[in-house]
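For concreteness, we quote verbatim a single protein encoded this way:
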Amino acid sequence: MSERVFVDTAWNSKPHACYDPHADKFFEAERLTDLGNYEEIYLDSLLFPGIWSELRELIVNGCRVYHFTRSWRWKELRRRFKDDLRKRFKNVKKSDYGDAYILWKVYQVGILKGNAHKWFKRVTVIDVELSRS
């Protein structure tokens, strides 16, 4: 099992944009369940309808899933990491891969400061079951 992946979730028929920092690679996943080989999955936002059954399958199979809790700070985070984004994406203004990359940067800073829990909340089976009722 790979360690962790950061995901810019797609609400429509687009694939999810993913970043694996250990392999330093970007890729797409049609379904979140395609990420079942990761121990930890970090999602970009509050969860939307239709995603819960996939999350349940991941959690039941032993994956730990987290979602980003501070969406109102996204513009600030994009400004904060804009130089990193420019270097990484060669002046591309907006990129779904860039959003997955920012999630990883936020996680990295959170771990260093000991407050990753402030930025990401674990999704549990209870959360999934409550959302379905």
